[in-house]
Amino acid sequence: MSRHVGCLASHGGAEGRYETPPASELQRLLWTKKGTNGHLDEVHPRIYIGDMYAAKDKRTLQAHHITHVLNAADGKFNVNTGASFYRDKNITYHGVEAFDMPTFDMSPFFHPAANFIKNALSSPAGKVLVHCAMGLSRSSTLVLAYLMIHEDMTLVEAMRAVSANRNICPNAGFLEQLRGLDRKLHC
After folding, report:
1. 3-class DSSP assignment, residue 99
2. In sequence order, what are the beta bridge partners of 50?
3. Which residues lie across from 92 on neighbouring strands?
4. Phi, psi dihedrals of residue 55, rounded to the nearest 5°
5. Pairing mode, strands 128-131 and 40-44
6. How far is CA 29 from its chain centroid?
7. How far is CA 45 from CA 48, 79, 122, 153, 184, in A?
8. Do the Cβ atoms of 183 and 51 come closer than 8 Å?
9. pLDDT tens for each residue of the chain, 187 residues long
10. CA nearest 111: which of 181, 187, 168, 7?
11. CB distance 50 to 39 below 8 Å
């Protein structure tokens, strides 16, 4: 990765300058395809990314001991579950009504979603499912934002960590918004 003179960061054990890579380099990282395409995959300790089938399969959620669900495709035209859907399983719910379009601004949801995930993990038994319709773009974008905000990872580190366990594909607009977050956090 290239280095930039104006950004000082210490990542990967080496003190140096970090520059948010261009979108083309980030896209190349996603082409490695090490991860899986399951309905539900653990992408970081106690953080799962899944699709709408996993979100609606209460038995699977119970088998994985999921305590929190973050729906990145909330709303009546998306994956319409809501807090009442999970009430009988004692699962804490948070919904983000996002659309998987490059023009949709996901950035206002980065911090609230990251804080929801952090809160879920604050309990030793806490496990969180972050999902959207397919578990590729909206959900992965919010998990990447969490890793950057609360785990002090760069965007590249977060993408490598998540894509090692699940194939992800944030749309071009979300990728640019994550690049903006990366510059804000690490420059």
Report:
1. coil
2. 40, 131
3. 68
4. -65, -30
5. unpaired
6. 16
7. 8, 25, 12, 15, 25
8. no
9. 333 333 444 444 445 688 999 988 888 877 665 666 789 999 999 999 999 999 999 999 999 999 999 999 999 889 989 999 999 999 999 999 999 999 999 999 999 999 999 999 999 999 999 999 999 999 999 999 999 999 999 999 999 999 999 999 999 999 999 999 999 998 7
10. 181
11. yes
Is 148:181 a contact under the CB 8 Å cutoff?
Answer: yes
The single residue listed with the structure tokens 């953080």 is 47
The domain defined by 40-186 folds into Protein-Tyrosine Phosphatase; Chain A (3.90.190)
Q: How far is it, in rounded angstroms, from Cα 165 to Cα 161?
A: 7
Residue 105 one-letter amino acid? D
Q: What pLDDT, on the 0 to 100 scale, is given for residue 16? A: 65
pTM higher than 0.85: yes
Using alpha carbons, list the distances in angstroms from residue 55 to 50, 90, 174.
7, 14, 22
pLDDT at 170: 96
Q: Does the annotation count 169 as an active-site position?
A: no
| 162 Ramachandran zone, left/alpha/beta (phi>0; psi -120 to 50) | alpha
Secondary structure of residue 92 in the 3-state scheme? strand
Instruction: State the Cα–Cα distance between residues 168 and 179, nearest whole angstrom.
Output: 16
Q: What is the C-alpha separation between 178 and 120, in angstroms, rounded?
A: 22
